[in-house]
Specification:
CATH topology of the largest domain: Aminopeptidase
Oligomer: single chain
CATH class of the largest domain: Alpha Beta
Structural class: alpha+beta
CATH architecture of the largest domain: 3-Layer(aba) Sandwich
Number of domains: 3
Order of helices and strands: EHHHEEEEHEHEEHHEHHEEEHEHEHHH
Radius of gyration: 22 Å
Number of strands: 14
Largest sheet: 8 strands, mixed
Shape: globular
C-alpha cells in the first residue's frame, strides 16, 4: 500500500518565517536533531540579513497527513537577469541542509514545480551539501554537481577515552615541540591563560577577532563575503551572541593572543572563526588555542569537533586519520535561463577562483582583486554569449 503524497506549502517574506516558527518547534518536540546552522534562531538572523541585502526569504514546509516532516529555507535573489534561490542561511552557514526528514524524489520534483510557478525561480543553487545530509541523496540523483567536491575534516572525539588519549596519538617529537613553544611564549610574553565563554560574547573580544581576520585577509589580498563589514558580518555578530555560541580565548601576558568562535549543537562543536594577533605569529598561538578548545570539548563530553572545509593540511593533522566528509555544490535548473546560467557558473567560477588564488598575495593586493568580482565578470560575459547563441 502506497503512502499518500506529501503536501508542500511555500510562503515568501519575513512575516512568513515568523509564522513558521511553530513548525521548527514541532520538529524539535518530535525528536528531530536540528543542526546549529538550521536552528530557528540562526535562520531568523540570516533572514533579516537576506532582506537587508535585497533577497526574499522562501520557506518550504513539507507535510504528510497534516504532520510536518521537513522544512527547507531558501532566499530568492536576482543574478544576471536570472532569479536564483539559494539557502536562506548562506553565506553565513557553512553547510546546506534540510530540517527534518530527507526529501523523496517525488516531493523534490513537486518543490521544483512550485518554486517555478509560484515564486518564478529559474535556478536553485545549493552549496556545501554534506554527503550525510538530508539533501544529498535526492540531489545526487536529480541535480547537477557544480565545481569539484570538497572535503570537510572533523575530529571524531568518541574514538578516544579523553584528551590525554587523543594527545598521545601525536609523536613524542610533536608533543615536545608544543611544550617548548609554549614555554618560549610564556618566557617572552608572560603568563598564558585559556578561557571559554558560552553565549553573549564580549563585544571587545568579538571586534578584536574580526579585526585580526580582516588584517589577515588584507595581507593575503583576499576578501570574505561574511567578514567584510556587510550585513552578513552583522549577522555573524548576532549569531555569536546566541546561547550555543562558544568563544575560546588564549591570553598571553594579560591580553588576547588567539580567539576562536564556534557553535555547539547536540554532540558537535563547529569551529567557525579562528584568528590570532599577528604580533604572535611566530609563537603558534593559534595551535595552542585550538588544542585547549579540543580539550574543552572532551571535558564537555562532545563527540565531534567539526573543522569545516576546506581540508587544509593543519586540519587533517588534527583529525588523526579520520576520513573527511565529502561536500558538493549542486544546481537545479528550472528554466532554460536557469540552465544556461548554471552552465556558465559551473565552468567560469572555478576558473576565476583558480586564477585569483594562483596569484601571489602581493599581486592580489596591488590589483585589489576580488574573487567574486572576477567570477562575476566571467559569468556575465559567458552568460551574454550563451544567450546570444540561443536567440
Amino acid at each position: 500500500m502506497h503512502s499518500p503524497p506529501d503536501d508542500v506549502d511555500i510562503s515568501v517574506g519575513l512575516d512568513a518565517l515568523a509564522k513558521c516558527e511553530a513548525y521548527w518547534r514541532e520538529l524539535e518536540m518530535s525528536g528531530v536533531k536540528i543542526g546549529m546552522f538550521d536552528s530557528f534562531a540562526m535562520i531568523e538572523i540570516a533572514a533579516r540579513a537576506a532582506v537587508a541585502s535585497g533577497s526574499d526569504p522562501i520557506i518550504i514546509v513539507v507535510k504528510s497527513s497534516g504532520v510536518v516532516k521537513s522544512i527547507l529555507a531558501l532566499r530568492r535573489q536576482r543574478e544576471f537577469a536570472t532569479t536564483v534561490a539559494v539557502p536562506l542561511n548562506a553565506p553565513l552557514a557553512q553547510y546546506a541542509d534540510i530540517v527534518g526528514a530527507p526529501l523523496s524524489k517525488q516531493t523534490f520534483a513537486l518543490i521544483q514545480r512550485r518554486l517555478h510557478t509560484q515564486c518564478l525561480v529559474d535556478l536553485v543553487i545549493l552549496r556545501k551539501v554534506r554527503q550525510d545530509s538530508g539533501l544529498s541523496d535526492v540531489l545526487s540523483q536529480l541535480a547537477v554537481p557544480q565545481e569539484q567536491a570538497l572535503q570537510a575534516p572533523f575530529i571524531d572525539l568518541s574514538r578516544f577515552d579523553n584528551f590525554a588519549a587523543y594527545e598521545a596519538t601525536f609523536s613524542s617529537r610533536t608533543r615536545r615541540a608544543r611544550r617548548q613553544r609554549r614555554q618560549k611564549l610564556q618566557t617572552a610574553h608572560g603568563d598564558i591563560k585559556f578561557t571559554i565563554h558560552q553565549g553573549l560574547i564580549d563585544d571587545e573580544v568579538l571586534q578584536t577577532a574580526l579585526r585580526w581576520k580582516r588584517q589577515w585577509l588584507a595581507a593575503q589580498g583576499l576578501k570574505s563575503v561574511v567578514f567584510d563589514a556587510s550585513v552578513w558580518q552583522q549577522a555573524f555578530c548576532a549569531a555569536a551572541q546566541l546561547p550555543d555560541a562558544i568563544t575560546s580565548v588564549l591570553s598571553v601576558g594579560g591580553r588576547p593572543a588567539a580567539i576562536e568562535i564556534g557553535f555547539r549543537s547536540q554532540e558537535t562543536y563547529t569551529s567557525y572563526l579562528g584568528t590570532y594577533d599577528p604580533s604572535f605569529a611566530d609563537h603558534s598561538v593559534g595551535q595552542h588555542q585550538m588544542m585547549q578548545t579540543i580539550k574543552w570539548c572532551f571535558d564537555e563530553g562532545l563527540e565531534r569537533y567539526d573543522l569545516l572545509a576546506p581540508a587544509d593540511s593543519y586540519k587533517l593533522h588534527l583529525t588523526r586519520g579520520e576520513p573527511a566528509i565529502r561536500i558538493q555544490d549542486y544546481a537545479v535548473p528550472l528554466t532554460l535561463a536557469g540552465h544556461t546560467f548554471s552552465q556558465v557558473r559551473r565552468f567560469s567560477l572555478p576558473l576565476a577562483r583558480h586564477m585569483v588564488r594562483s596569484l601571489p598575495p602581493q599581486v592580489r593586493i596591488a590589483a585589489g582583486s576580488r574573487t567574486g568580482q572576477v567570477a562575476a565578470a566571467a559569468s556575465a560575459v559567458g552568460f551574454a554569449a550563451m544567450l546570444g547563441a540561443i536567440e
